[in-house]
Amino acid sequence: QVQLVESGGGLVQPGGSLRLSCAASGITFRIYAINWYRQAPGKQRELVATIGGNDMTTFADSVKGRFTISRDNAKNTVYLQMNSLKPEDTALYYCNARFMINSYWGQGTQVTVSS
Questions:
Q1: Which of 20, 57, 84, 102 is 20–30 Å from 64 (CA)?
Q2: Of 59, 54, 58, which is closest to residue 71 (Cα–Cα)?
Q3: What pLDDT is recorded for position 95?
């Protein structure tokens, strides 16, 4: 069975930080590209960040300079470090793992940025 489990979400004030984790099992983790998506009510799902098997990273313009993505292959875990959070970052954040035709999703973790 393939399982992706997100954690680390919560309530944070504007300007604060959170670190999300995506723990994977049932896949050869090191060869998968890992993506973080987010979706807020009434809005389209948005690709936030990607890290490839080669450790190359990309970010949405809306989060560049504020978010970083990293992976620890020994722990089968990817992290999304979110700094300088804004209310517009509020969303359900999903972890996605892709390799060739394979694509797997976690259940999501809620991030709420509010005073």
A1: 102
A2: 54
A3: 98
Check: CB of residue 113 under 8 Å from CB of residue 85. yes
Q: Which amino acid type is present at position 61?
A: D
Q: For residue range 6-36, list pLDDT tens digits in order.
A: 999 999 999 999 999 999 999 999 999 999 9
Contacts of 17 (CB under 8 A, 6+ apart): 81, 82, 83, 84, 85
Q: Which two structure tokens, joined as six digits, stand for 93?
A: 């954040």
β-pairing, 109-113 vs 10-12, is parallel
By the 10 Å C-beta count (0-12 exposed, 13-18 middle, 19+ buried), 107 is classed as exposed
